[in-house]
Amino acid sequence: MEAWGYAAGRGSVHRILRILTVVTLCRVSLAWGPPDATAVVGQAADRGERVWEEALRLDRDLASRSLFEYAFLLLETGRHPERLERLLDLAQRMQDRDRDSQGFGNFRWKWADGTVLDANAVEFCMQHASLIQIRHRDRLAAPVANGFDGLLDHAVQACLRHHVPSSYTNIALMNAANLVLLGEARRHAAALAEGRARLDAFCVYTALHGIHEYGSPTYYGVDLDDLLLLHRFTRSDEIRAQVEALLGLFWRDLAANWFAPGERLGGVHSRDYDYLRGLGGLDGHLAAAGWLAPERPAGGLPVAAALTEWRPPQALRAANLEQHPRWVVQAWGSGVADTRCHWVTPDVTLSTAGAAYGGSMDLPLTVDFAQPRESVRAYVIADCRRDPYGRKRIPAGGGHEKALHANPFWAATQDRGEALGLVLYRPQDLRDEPPTVESHLVFPADADEVFAGPRSLTLEARTGVVALPPDGVLAVRRGKGAFAVRVPWSRTLDGEAAPLALVFDGTRVGACRLTVVHHALLGGGPGPQPSGAAFWVRVAEGLDSTAFHVWAAAFAAMAPGTALDEPDRLRLEVPGTGSPLALEVASPWQVCGERRPEYGRPVLSVNGDDSPSRALQSLAAVRRQAESLARAVAVAVGEAGTATWEAESGSVAPMLQIAASDAVFGGQYVWAPGTPGARGGGDGVLTCKVVVRQAGTYCLWGRVLAPTPEDDSFFVRVYREAGEICPKRAWHTGVHTEWEWVPVILEGFPGTPATGFALPAGDVRIEISVREDGIGLDQLFLSSDASKTP
């Protein structure tokens, strides 16, 4: 069997028996058939009745996106044509029609919102509005159709102004798809061209850096909706081929990380709304593909899957059931450490993210057991709100409420079934004076056995708080899978070793936790060094009770590892099963300098095979970008320690453009097109190759044109093949209405000292990427003398 390809080979009888055995245990059949479109759409229309009730009473929580979705379902089923006028009239009333407004063409998310709060609302609304236009525009009564036409014209303008970086995976895909479909259906050439360009940019980003919103149980469902609808309704064979390549990558990702014994997407997740169980809207697509029982998803099967003919290859599901153990490594961002690892066995999985995702909903270290999908998984969480289980929702922007956790520095390394993770709380992570600073490892309360230090805890003993000694061992068995954890290093805010405790909160949420307490109550600020904790985690499969105790005791008897703890450097090393695991980070605590073992950053690799991601490499946009990078001029730093070069001599990625002007050197400059003051973001990266003659600290300048405060910043990243020198950080240039030289100051503002980059001798790459559109870059100047200016 070609495990991760489309083709299924003959395979051995032994393999077939293994597949059938796992299928039986998981109660999920390989027998698969496409969902009945009529039934799926009808069931969705039934659920939409609540939208009509909300529309009649003008409910405060009436959502604009629901108006379009329900109107489409009524048209698709032929039900209640008399309701369409009210639904689309309310949609018009929720649209911002003020041409001078920043939100022109967008929609209020809820009826009660006084204004547009969420820039993404127009994308969710247009997802179904475009389907109404494509499939049912001729069925609308003339007055309704005329109003709908005007609504679409305004919304297209909002989609065009909504510049979304490709790293914002679900909205970037939705925005590109909306522009393509509306551009085709409305014969809007500018919208179609821009949609194609944005889809190209997304393909290039993903081919280089992987799926950024990795493993999200919620947003993978949105991603698949976007791709399936675009695949079904675009008129372009070229776009359809791009979508098929992306769908192939997503489903190979799912096959690699789907943990069938636990009926869930295993491993670490970004943007997870359900910390305890890791379930979400993706489940509908998994059920539509036959990977889950149809009744499993509470929201029913997705309409997008029912309307389309594209199906994930059944060979992927067979490979998922057959390949154990499975070692999955994948990239999810441009950073060297932006990786995700997942060790999958039939009884337990262990997964880590190499770096913090950058949001407040990711789980960077997880353990999944072979248990019912409603059971609690194990995960590490940084907590500054006394909310280890993600139960407290707070305002999160755009009128939404979410359960958010802290977002400190995180680094991890993993060697199959063993991992070392490090969390550090820096002063900037604690600006809001949180009521607590704690690091938790959450695990299921109904575990078969809990081993704490030298003894097992009976069910009766699992109450209250149980103190653990420093470097105490916690081991947990569920079924035949187990994990064990030690905390080889910890620090409170005042610089002491942090206390450890097992906290049994009862069965209210079905979870318990190992808690490292850094700061229990308000009263003292952070010290000169960051507080934090290291988690050394190991998993094992095939253990009965006796074997579990032997295994846990052996882990407890191991040497505790070493910690080199200095004022400006922290290095941790623990003995691994095969070889040591090590992490090192230094002030200003932003980059992991050493990580052992290293495992590269393939877009997606399964047991060393990276073929799952190769389909993207053949796309025309991806080939063009590779050629552009190959052609980029390498700039040599001279004996004087300086170099000056034209921005356009580097590699210019999609959504950046080279423009002509008599006011710049060489007659050309690089910019992200945008209307001044429109607060547009966007995509695109300028990559410059630099050959450094002598290692040292260098300052960087750029000749920029930044017309307004809404168009005056870039992102800057510096790296080499061996590792990251400076992670991507914001460069605020300040307003410059004429071309001027400006020093690169990261995480600061004009007037503060220029950032010094510690560059090694040899090849270095400098990336300058879009943060705000409308800003231009003409030349760059690099100098080892901080006092020297261009």
Protein architecture, described:
By secondary structure, the protein is an alpha+beta fold. Among the domains are: 48-162, no CATH class; 324-600, Beta-galactosidase, Chain A, domain 5 (Distorted Sandwich), CATH 2.70.98; 632-783, Galactose-binding domain-like (Jelly Rolls), CATH 2.60.120.260. The protein contains 16 helices and 38 strands. The strands form seven sheets. Strands 15-18-19-12-7-6-5-4-3-25 form a ten-stranded antiparallel sheet, with no helix packed on it. The protein has a seven-stranded antiparallel sheet with strand order 10-11-20-17-16-13-14, with helices on one face. Strands 27, 29, 30, 32, 35, 36 and 38 form a seven-stranded antiparallel sheet that branches. It is globular. The termini are far apart.
What's the helix and strand layout?
Elements (H helix, E strand, L loop, with lengths): L12 H14 L10 H11 L1 H9 L6 H14 L6 H10 L27 H16 L5 H20 L7 H17 L3 H21 L9 H15 L3 H21 E2 L4 E2 L16 H7 L14 H5 L6 H9 L3 E6 L7 E6 L3 E6 L11 E5 L8 E6 L10 E2 L5 E2 L6 E7 L2 E8 L11 E8 L4 E4 L2 E3 L6 E5 L4 E6 L2 E11 L8 E5 L6 E9 L11 E10 L4 H13 L4 E5 L2 E6 L6 E6 L5 E5 L8 E2 L13 H12 L2 E3 L5 E5 L4 E2 L4 E4 L7 E4 L13 E8 L3 E11 L6 E8 L2 E10 L3 E8 L13 E3 L2 E9 L5 E8 L7
Parallel strand pairs: 26-31
Antiparallel strand pairs: 1-2, 3-4, 3-25, 4-5, 5-6, 6-7, 7-12, 8-9, 10-11, 11-20, 12-19, 13-14, 13-16, 15-18, 16-17, 17-20, 18-19, 21-22, 22-23, 23-24, 27-38, 28-31, 29-30, 30-38, 31-37, 32-35, 32-36, 32-38, 33-34, 33-37
Helix pairs in contact: 2-4, 4-5, 4-6, 5-7, 6-7, 6-8, 7-8, 8-9, 8-10, 10-11, 10-12, 11-14
